[in-house]
Write a structure and sequence with these properties.
It contains 3 helices and 9 strands; from the N terminus they run βββββαβαβαββ. The protein has 229 residues and is an alpha+beta fold. It has a single domain (7-214), classed as Muramoyl-pentapeptide Carboxypeptidase, domain 2 (2-Layer Sandwich). A 5-stranded mixed beta sheet has the order 4-6-7-9-8, with helices on one face. It has a two-stranded antiparallel sheet with strand order 1-2. A two-stranded antiparallel ribbon has the order 3-5. A hairpin with a 2-residue loop joins strand 8 (202-205) and strand 9. Helix 1 packs across helix 3. The protein is globular and about 40 Å long. The model is unreliable at 1-46 (pLDDT under 50).
Length: 229
């Protein structure tokens, strides 16, 4: 069985410097991600490795956990995920934490709508939508199935979502990043989100203001399904 450990994210390649760090309790926190299998287990609260995926403890890291596919409040009107857990590749998880730290400097927080998605559930969602512009065909898999894509939004520091012009998973042209329907404030909010994610090495998808791929995507697809204990 693979072993694990809680890693403290540190170093100039990720964490903000002391001078630039936001003055709140999220700075220099631990992120619950897995370590390589040859690292000795020393923490009973550490996370388990699954095919190179790591669990991100959204709540303790200051994200807003709104994993909609773990509820019926999504376009399928069905609960797709057994529970609201976020799994990503290790370097993607670290970049996402950086994005949230950048957001905190602007007194904002990142909302997490979706992270890794098992490929069997990709098939289920594709069968309902059957539009590859919005749900990738499971034959080749999506970036979500590789653990290198996230669906995100922005909220103020109290957790109130910023208006982006449409709801998450609005399968219309109104959700395209460049669209004339959103008002100036909504377009500004979209740009703030995009700029944060770009700085953390994520690339946008033009047809969905919420979808961002990590700048490295050469990971295999996976059908790992997490334990909800």
């Amino acid at each position: 069985m693979p072993r694990n450990i809680m890693i403290v994210l540190a170093g100039a390649n990720l964490l903000l410097s002391c001078d630039d760090a936001p003055k709140n309790h999220m700075v220099n926190q631990k992120i619950n991600v897995s370590a390589p299998a040859d690292v000795e287990v020393r923490d009973e609260h550490s996370e388990t490795i699954h095919e190179g995926l790591v669990r991100v403890n959204l709540d303790s890291l200051g994200f807003i956990n709104d994993m909609v596919y773990a509820t019926q409040n999504n376009f399928t009107r069905q609960q797709i995920y057994p529970c609201p857990e976020c799994y990503l590749r290790d370097e993607v998880a670290r970049a996402l934490l950086q994005a949230n730290q950048l957001a905190q400097k602007q007194k904002l927080r990142i909302i997490i709508y979706d992270c890794f998605r098992p490929i069997s559930l990709q098939q289920k969602m594709y069968d309902l939508v059957q539009n590859p512009d919005y749900v990738a065909h499971p034959k080749n898999g999506s970036k979500h199935n590789r653990g290198c894509a996230v669906d995100v939004g922005l909220a103020d520091f109290d957790g109130k979502p910023l208006n982006m012009g449409t709801q998450f998973d609005d399968f219309s042209e109104n959700a395209h990043y460049i669209n004339t329907r959103p008002n100036s404030q909504e377009r500004k909010n979209r740009k703030i989100l995009r700029d944060l994610m770009l700085e953390a090495k994520f690339l946008p998808y033009e047809k969905e203001w919420w979808h961002f791929n990590f700048n490295r995507t050469d990971f295999p697809t996976s059908n790992f399904q997490w334990n909800c204990n």
